[in-house]
Amino acid sequence: MESQDLLTKYNIPVPRYTSYPTVPYWKEGISVKDWKTVFSETFKENNRQEGISLYIHLPFCESLCTYCGCNKKITTNHRVENEYMIALLKEWDIYRALMPESPILREIHLGGGTPTFFSPENLQFLINSILQVATVHPDRNFSFEGHPNNTTREHLDTLYQLGFRRVSFGVQDNDAEVQRVINRFQPFENVQRATANAREAGYESVNFDLIYGLPHQTLESIRKTILECITLRPDRVAFYSYAHVPWASRGQRLFDENDLPSTSLKMELYKLGRQVFIENGYQDIGMDHFALPDDELHKAWGDGTLHRNFMGYTTQHTSLLLGLGVSSISDVGKAFAQNAKSIHEYYNYIEKNELPVEKGYFLSEEDLVFRKHILDMSCRGETFFNPVYKKQIESLSIPELQKLSDDGLVEFDDFHAKLTVQGRNFIRNVCRAFDLHLLRSAQTQEKKSFSKAI
């Protein structure tokens, strides 16, 4: 089958697999007592050996980017910073009480929203307050997301002094008309300045986020954006498919859907983007990620140590990822927990000295086995079947793998499955063959819950 035909065939609703089971299958109102127990157990088992990861959600943005599906709060009132930081540190204190010893921080990531909405002084206060009661792992990896319009040299210097060495800039698109429609006015000069400042400050890795499938994008405009961006030689690029989910993101309801690229054009945008990256020395890591050969992400992909979590692909792998802040997600391997999604509700929990957990999932043994299959396929391109779950593999996964194999995307036998070279462009679809929750669910639910693969 031709490449274009495959893209059309596999452009179906499918998860991004930053977790398994995926969020739509989690439960409301999980037992916080049970969550605390499994959190403490995981901490005791893994803190000294590998450390923990920390994700901090900073939700504020000064303006609404209408494409964005993230949890955010739009305001120009910077007085909100102090109240939110106090709540974050109280949540951290609640979790610290569940830790019998000082946590060893291996990974910190500041996400949003716009982390650089916060002043450098406040970010310094926040991170220092956390580090005062923690130990930093010698192999630590600290990173943050920055908006090119407001990431100052002071932001970069302050976070660098705190141990941050990676920064990700949300570029999205450089075309003026696309920026107008998505309400993200960002001159390329700002991207150039922010990148130059990061390099001068000593950052070891700079990532750009770009999006294909936005309103008014054309092949000419996306090529121009990518070629402009790679003149700055970002170490990594995340080339995301725009996920049009207006039922979940109110801002996207402002779009005239007639302005979105057609399915065929969107596929051409992806193919062109991928081609330009590869022609300019970037390696396709998989699931929207590209990296230069000397970047750690590329090296981890090559030596089989790549990992995937809620932050996407990472070179770090800890068994405990603690999420702080509104809507943040924590992952302790055997369970997930998600915080309240509104700031008002989040504050109410914190004021009562309670964990703001509202949703989550405790994994069964079957879930753990198939989570590993999905991680293995997405990070290493190969997985070996667990014989204990032969029945599920034969009845649910094999029929899907056979379809993928017929199209040249995987090779499999009775013991394992492996991506082909062509299959690397369809990792999400291949992972779907091991998603028992989705395979068992009704087709209508699948279509409603997830964005399309391309």
Q: What is the CATH topology of the largest domain?
A: pyruvate-formate lyase- activating enzyme
Distance between the termini: 17 Å
Sketch the major β-sheet.
9 strands, mixed
Kindly provide the radius of gyration, computed on alpha-carbon positions and rounded to a whole number of angstroms.
21 Å
Helical content class: 40-55%
**Principal-axes shape call:** globular
Instruction: Quickly count the helices.
Output: 16
Architecture of the largest domain, CATH level 2? Alpha-Beta Horseshoe
What fraction strand? 15-25%
CATH homology superfamily name of the largest domain: tm_1862 like domain
Q: In which order are the strands of the major sheet placed?
A: 10-11-9-8-7-6-5-2-14
Q: Please identify the structural class as seen in this structure.
A: alpha/beta
Detailed description of the structure:
The protein is α/β, with parallel strands linked by helices and about 450 residues long. It folds into 2 domains: about 1-20 and about 365-445, Arc Repressor Mutant, subunit A (Orthogonal Bundle), CATH 1.10.10.920; about 20-325, Alpha-Beta Horseshoe (pyruvate-formate lyase- activating enzyme). Helices cover about 40% and strands about 20% of the residues. It is built from 16 helices and 20 strands. Strands 10-11-9-8-7-6-5-2-14 form a 9-stranded mixed β-sheet, sandwiched between helices. A 4-stranded antiparallel β-sheet has the order 1-17-16-15, with helices on one face. Strand 8, helix 8 (about 220-230) and strand 9 (about 235-240) form a beta-alpha-beta unit. It is globular, with a radius of gyration of 21 Å. The protein starts with a helix and ends in a 5-residue tail after the last helix.
